[in-house]
């Protein structure tokens, strides 16, 4: 829809509200009317409509210029905001529910978010970054599930800001990829960010800084949504596992059974004989004494060895806190929503052997090591000491806070996204190639600046010692 038509619709909507105010007014005692009147009279609903018109309209306009999957996912974003609008209206006439009632109340919004997430499954699309940034951004709408300081969520304003950080990882990739290719994609990515920052954040700050305000005398959550199924109707489906109320990381470390060397040491410390249960090797079991082993490999046996399926040497996937000090993330493959949110500056994070995954570290930690990972993305809030990338191939690292030192060693292909707070830190590289550093522009609307770190050096013997300088290429 052209921008002019959206403006006309917005003006017509404003006129309708003014007419309703002049004829309907407020109920006795100054209370706001219920039902359809809430939608017309309540300032928070009017402000939410303005939010959708001003910010969501820009995202839709840019998506219409692009079309295809980008337009499809943007329409789902629009659908999610519409679902939240309906919930905001119902909250004003609904009693505050318990956790199970809240999950059922929020199910219409959760269903839309699940639909968006399903569009990101698989990586066959050329617009995967668009799909992920849009789908991940919808988690910001879960601010509506905040019920108090003991609910396990951040305050609504902070929750919106934190939720956008994960989506920004993919949004920044769009800005870099299409910076000189197609301005419509750049406009879409910028408009999507503005929808949440400052759009949704400022809306929540103005109207719901302490969370939704439920009715003290309204209906219960379930009856507010529906009158209930008829006796002959089938039972409703169970809510999806990815609930808006889930504040835990996808893989809780405390509930994971001990594996690998941790299990070995526990067995040693148990007091049992270390050799109990082991089988003895007798002389007739040794290869040199077996008659059926001649030491000659025939053609059939050789072919069988070649065609036999190889057994993976990688261990089981892990995401756990060890000894209260070290977060271990190992052997994660294709996991796009790994999260560490309960961490502090005394802990370290070690990421090993992961492929095609994305890890978000929401708190500041002492140091981070990324080792032997491929196509891995890591987003972290900040480090006290250093972030190290070792023996990796095609990784992307985004620092959203301060990082005194970032080192890249024996790595091919590394994209570093720095925050303004981390520009004063040092970057050390060794035996690495294709290292690009992206820094924010001077202004909030300026494009990111991309800098390629030199990987070739010239050494000249001068005044009794070698002088080393990086080699720059003109690109000619």
Short summary of the structure?
This protein has helices at about 5-25, 35-40, 45-65, 70-90, 100-105, 105-120, 130-135, 155-175, 185-205, 220-225, 260-270, 300-305, and strands at about 320, 325-330, 340, 350, 360, 365-370, 375-380, 385-390, 395-400, 405-410, 410-415, 425-430, 435-440, 450, 455-460, 465-470. It is α/β, with parallel strands linked by helices.
Properties at a glance:
18% strand; 37% helix; 16 strands; 7-stranded mixed β-sheet; 476 residues; alpha/beta
How would you describe this structure to a colleague?
The chain has 476 residues and is of the alpha/beta class. A hairpin with a 2-residue loop joins strand 15 (457-462) and strand 16 (465-470). It has 12 helices and 16 strands.
Number of strands: 16
Number of helices: 12
Biggest sheet, in brief?
7 strands, mixed
Which of globular, elongated, flat, extended, rod-shaped describes the shape?
Answer: globular
Q: Which spans of ≥5 residues are poorly predicted at pLDDT below 50?
A: 20-39, 223-243, 246-278, 294-312
The pLDDT mean sits at 77
* Helix/sheet category: alpha/beta
Distance between the termini: 44 Å
Tell me the series of helices and strands, N- to C-terminal. Answer: HHHHHHHHHHHHEEEEEEEEEEEEEEEE
Strand arrangement across the biggest beta sheet: 1-2-4-6-8-10-12
The level of helicity is: 25-40%
Rounded to an integer, what's the Rg over CA atoms?
28 Å
